[in-house]
Write a structure and sequence with these properties.
The protein is mostly beta strands and 507 residues long. The chain has two domains: 1-23 and 483-507; 24-482, Neuraminidase (6 Propeller). It is 10% helix and 40% strand. The strands form eight sheets. Strands 1, 2, 28, 29 and 32 form a five-stranded antiparallel β-sheet that branches. Strand 12 and strand 13 form a beta hairpin. The longest helix has 21 residues, at 486-506. It starts with a helix and ends with a helix.
Length: 507
């Protein structure tokens, strides 16, 4: 017990000296290379270091059990049902992310339906893990929802409808990019529908995923769209669901589009959407701008991809709401006046039946292209944003930024990790690949603690494990602590000194 107390005292005291009065202090943990902290037997036996495919961190996602935050799931594109004799693999920790195991515990929804393609997970308030999973995709793509009370047990997984798709009948075989959000007994799954034009929809279960009885468009229906919508959803504590998506034109040149971003809200569980009359597309127009994404003509040799290795096929969108629904935050991507793709944050708040926007602010560094944003709101109101930037040093920089004034300003932006990406060929083993990191990173929170997952170059080399030539999922956590007024600072420091003296006497 001595070391944790010493650590907490030193962190708290140094944070007090560094922080301003009545402000908050960010305590950010070091990133953990998930593959690098598997058991050696798993790393070796499963071929993580020897497989030609080394892109284990592609599309990382994190889910944390609110009843026991030591239980953490990190998913990515690793081993699928088609490459194993059991289930698809995700990574699981029971000690807060210090060490990890590979769990081949997600079965195929039905015979011949390979998974995963896109997938993400969330725990409900009872500690049950839910997943929204894109299956098939050799010729058909459909969305499946499943759940388990034991992430280590293949047999405990249960699929909605016994493994039937949950997307609308019209979108069968044409669905893409599911995104999950939970509240109470409701399960929301947003997804893209490509059966006619480009549509954005949300399927809803009112009974913890047993059945999905609502599946409606979140706007005025399908539209012509030359980018992927990047449909994302989030809920507040009241069960209200919010959505964000983007619509792009053909663009002035390959991979460059003028994109308009839209915000919508459903207060009745996805049955109707409040702001369909606010625009022709349907939804509140957040803003528009030129953005480099969806470069179909790009190759590994020549492209407009992020960091030269990641085509942005998810739009550049993120959304979160606080528990009360008093503040809704959206992140979008577009070029600044100098022509650099930056990230922008905007806050909305209710006014009667409307949502009113605050001023938009830029949140990523000048001169660096930024992408893959994710956002969460802590119970204390702190807004935490994770994103990647790519600078002149040819490195990817993973940022964790915070706002304590409801998105009016960014008061801290910490570099959590940086790395030089691999070539796509080295990462994926394929000359036809176009995404080394995938369509998203992800950050979420429980109370005042946040948890993030991102793709990065491995950093472990020892004990029989070498990840320095792999793209791995990384996990980290952090919190935000209140700092007292100056008048109470001396008193607190005196109390801390007394506590340290008492612990010395107790040895």
């Amino acid at each position: 017990m001595r070391a944790p107390v010493a650590w907490s005292l030193s962190v708290l005291v140094s944070g007090l000296f560094a922080a301003q009065a009545a402000s908050a202090g960010l305590i950010l943990g070091s990133p953990v290379d998930v593959i690098g902290n598997l058991p050696v037997a798993s790393f070796t036996g499963l071929g993580y270091g020897t497989n030609a495919y080394k892109d284990w961190g592609n599309e990382p996602y994190v889910a944390v059990n609110p009843l026991n935050t030591n239980q953490i799931v990190v998913s990515s594109f690793s081993y699928s049902t088609s490459s194993t004799s059991s289930g698809a693999n995700f990574f699981y920790s029971t000690n807060g992310g210090v060490s990890w195991t590979s769990q081949f515990s997600v079965p195929a929804p039905a015979a011949g339906i390979g998974i995963p393609n896109d997938w993400n997970f969330a725990y409900d308030s009872n500690g049950t893990l839910h997943g929204a999973v894109l299956g098939g995709c050799n010729a058909t793509c459909n969305v499946y929802q499943g759940s388990t009370t034991d992430p280590t047990n293949l047999a405990s997984w249960s699929w909605t409808g016994g493994g039937t798709p949950i997307n609308s009948a019209a979108s069968v075989n044409k669905a893409d990019q599911p995104w999950i959000a939970l509240q109470g007994g409701k399960v929301f799954v947003g997804y893209d529908d490509f059966h006619s034009g480009t549509g954005e929809r949300v399927a809803v279960s009112n009974n913890n995923g047993t059945s999905f009885t609502v599946d409606n468009a979140i706007n005025n229906g399908a539209q012509s769209n030359f980018v992927n919508p990047g449909t994302r959803i989030a809920t507040d504590g009241n069960g209200t669901v919010y959505s964000i998506f983007g619509v792009g034109d053909a663009g002035p040149s390959p991979g460059v589009h003028n994109v308009s971003y839209f915000l919508n809200r459903s207060s009745d569980g996805g049955v109707t959407w409040d702001f369909n009359a606010s625009s022709a597309i349907g939804g509140i127009l957040i803003g528009s701008g030129v953005s480099a994404q969806l470069d179909n003509s790009g190759t590994q040799a020549s492209n407009r991809w992020f960091a030269g290795v990641n085509d942005l096929r998810c739009n550049i969108t993120a959304i979160a709401a606080d528990k009360t629904g008093s503040h809704i935050y959206v992140v979008t991507g577009k070029r600044d006046g100098g022509g650099t793709d930056r990230l922008f944050l905007r806050e909305y708040h209710p006014s009667g039946n409307n949502l009113v926007a605050s001023a938009e602010i830029m949140i990523s560094p000048a001169g660096e292209r930024a992408a893959l944003p994710s956002i969460t709101v802590l119970d204390n109101g702190t807004v935490v944003i994770m994103y990647d930037s790519f600078g002149a040093d040819q490195k990817v920089h993973v940022h964790v930024a915070t706002s304590h004034d409801f998105g009016a300003t960014i008061d801290s932006d910490v570099e959590e990790y940086s790395f030089t990406p691999l070539s796509l060929l080295a990462a994926t083993g394929s000359s036809g690949s176009n995404r080394e990191f995938g369509d998203y990173d992800f950050i979420m929170s429980v109370g005042d603690t946040f948890f993030g997952a991102f793709a990065g170059l491995g950093n472990v080399n020892g004990g029989g494990i070498n990840t320095t030539a792999l793209i791995d999922p990384f996990f980290f956590s952090g919190t935000d602590v209140e700092v007292p007024e100056p008048g109470s600072l001396a008193l607190l420091l005196s109390a801390l000194t007394g506590l340290a003296w008492r612990r010395r006497r107790a040895r």
